[in-house]
Fold this protein.
Amino acid sequence: MRKILSMLLVMLFSFTVFLFPKETLAVSDYYRIAGNDRISTAIAISEAGWDTSDTLIIARADNPADALAAASLSGKKEAPILLTYTNSLPQNVIREMRRLEVSKVFLLGGNSAISIEIEKSIKKEGYNVERISGKDRFETAANINKTANTDTYSKAILVNGYTVADAISASSTSAIEGIPIYLATDKNIPIELPKTIKEVTIYGGDKVIGNNVASQLSKKGIKVKRISGKNRFDTNIQSLNKNLTESAIIVRGTSVSSTKEDYPDAVTASGLSKVLNANVILSHPTKVVSEVEKHFSVNRYENIFVIGGENAVSSDVVWDSSAFVDSDLRQIIKEDIVDSTIHPTKPIIYYTNSKDKLIRALNYETGKVQTIEFKEKPESIYFANNKLYVALLKREHSSYWDQYQEGAIAIINSDTFKLDKKLEINLDPFDIVVDSEGFIYVAGGSGQHTSLISYNSNGKELSSKGIYQSTSIELDSSENKIYAIDTQLSPRDIFLYEISSGIITGYRDSPYHGDYPLGTKIKISPDGHYIFNNSGYVFQGSSLNYHSELDYEFSDMLFDDTLKNFYLGLNGLMFAYDYQSFRPIGALSTHGDIQTMHQNKNDMVILSEVFLADTTKLTTGVEVIKKDNFLQSNLEKKTPMKTPIINQGY
């Protein structure tokens, strides 16, 4: 789903517009799918969900009652739902049919709903047309289920045929699971249900579908379950599938007409819920619904899709209903960060930037910043042995800088934030790691085929192995291996260097060469069992063999202290995974898009991209999640926090 969804989102950007206040980035990615009217909105939904479709469903635009039960047909046939006028087929609908390369078209309703002239015109275009109708909406719904072949199933959904909101609440389950929707009144079921049905779920309270209807079903030996809340929004929230955590579709949950039940945008969204594997959530168009707000306060979706324009559901309502964050934005960093690390016990972030020759120590609790300036350009930094090790560049990295390379390593006492010593080396340093014995390992940044060199604490060269220029390195927790991934080649590979007491003793290359589209970042699990690449692929630590693929790509990751869970940063979300099963168990929201994740004894610290108030310039936010209440307050979702407005940086 990850790769399919990412392709879909690229397509969505071409026609969706969703504007929110610029105080922070949205905690999830928001997309509005809308047209100028109900017909063009249905087309926009089709464009969002389908490159092509063999099958198309068309319903009447001004009274789409026949589309109420079409969710299972849409899901079963994987077909979009479009709308038409009764007596004329809009040209943009014809264009969408051609774009989809449709071969079969289902018309919902009789000739009074969609005229015979429209049927003839579609056939004249060369499409196979099948009309699904009945004497009324109840029989039409039953015949839709027959066409979908869902009338042979043992489960069914029952909604009031005149109360559209409950049918919309049922649409996601119907489309995804293929459960047929049948229509009833408050007092009876006007049609005979198939004899195969053994279980019926009623959507709505007893005033919508009376208890006598439930009793009639029970007397026939049918198991009856009712999903009912204090209002339509509560019923909708109670009906949501808790396993659908990736995407949510927000639709207007009130009629656009004061004289009849009319939900044009919502009834065409059921097929998209199947494509996105998404819950459909009802919203009031102009005010926040407490049940909806409560749901979003304890549930984190990666993507939120809003169907229809501002009159359908306003941007303010979506923002105020769903923009919750779990992190505390402590500081703003206005420099462009190149590399960063964290003190293991103190609230201090160390970082280098792209513009000056300073290394900075930022106390994210107090905002105090200390600096050390160098003649050379600081780049990579590493914390070990209560010291900071900083790679200093004397020239820019270059593929043509083969001979007479030079650079330096600065060693800084973290307690005093004073320079202990500077080691001159005959290598242009790109990345650096240091073990607990004080041995320093530096990967070269220039000369294409360059070196990984080990040094003692006085800068004496101890050993060397070949490495490609500008390769990132990671030290295994056992301190007998260094893993590496190149950043300049495509396709790229993972490498393993064996080390012992400061000596590089061996080298192994990945058995795969270009088989996986790898990113430039790797993380090693604390037990050394796995190598996680930010493309979402996982490899075995000892053999470098492929192990599995995660649900998501990620920008960075962390492991908890007990190795029960690990956490992936993606956009404005941090996903928690169970380490044993590699399955997601929850998600947390951040103010901005996650770039880098650190942790020390007390905190998870996230460097993210955020907007300052009244600006369009991205800057770096320092966001903190306290470890002592992380699981209790966030994953168990007891005390979510609404996103605040950022008025100024530090």
About this structure: The radius of gyration is 30 Å. Residues 164-177 form the longest helix (14 residues). The chain has a mean pLDDT of 88. Residues 2-322 form one domain.
